[in-house]
Design goal:
The chain contains 6 helices and 3 strands. The protein has 141 residues and is mostly helical. Strands 1-3-2 form a 3-stranded antiparallel β-sheet. Strand 2 and strand 3 form a beta hairpin.
């Protein structure tokens, strides 16, 4: 079996973190997701072309990145993952498996935010001031 794509890691990570509301070390989440996806030792040994990182850990990291960008999880410190309040609510409300439209919405969340950030970044470079509302309270132009 080939290592699943990162989008297939989202649900196992979501469910794992929902079962551990206090959060978990990322390496433990990687292993839980690998078990949930029935990855064998050969699958888990597969390396990225760079030869530095295991494919399944890389894909789990990208899945977590999507969840963070959607506001469902956070990393309060390096290598530690935890659902946000919104993420815990989302996990409770969503059936398993996640409906395809829900998963697709998570996957496109980054694109929407990236487009907004790109636009705002360009605006900031031109004007020298932040263009988007941030946690610091800056307003859009």
């Amino acid at each position: 079996m080939a290592v699943p794509t990162y989008d297939q890691f989202i649900e196992p990570i979501l469910r794992c973190l929902a079962a551990h509301p206090q959060g978990m070390n990322a390496r433990d989440v990687h292993e839980a997701a690998a078990r949930a996806l029935d990855l064998n030792d050969t699958d888990k040994a597969e390396l990225l072309p760079s030869g530095v990182q295991r494919v399944y850990k890389n894909r789990a990291g990208w899945a977590h990145d999507r969840m963070k960008r959607a506001g469902l999880s956070a990393s309060s410190r390096r290598g530690y993952w935890q659902l946000t309040e919104a993420g815990a609510k989302f996990a409770k409300e969503q059936p398993s498996p996640l409906p395809v439209p829900v998963l697709e919405a998570l996957l496109t969340e980054k694109q929407r935010r990236s487009a907004s950030a790109s636009c705002c970044g360009a605006e900031q470079r031109q004007s020298g001031r932040p263009a988007c509302r941030t946690s610091a309270g800056n307003d859009q132009p």
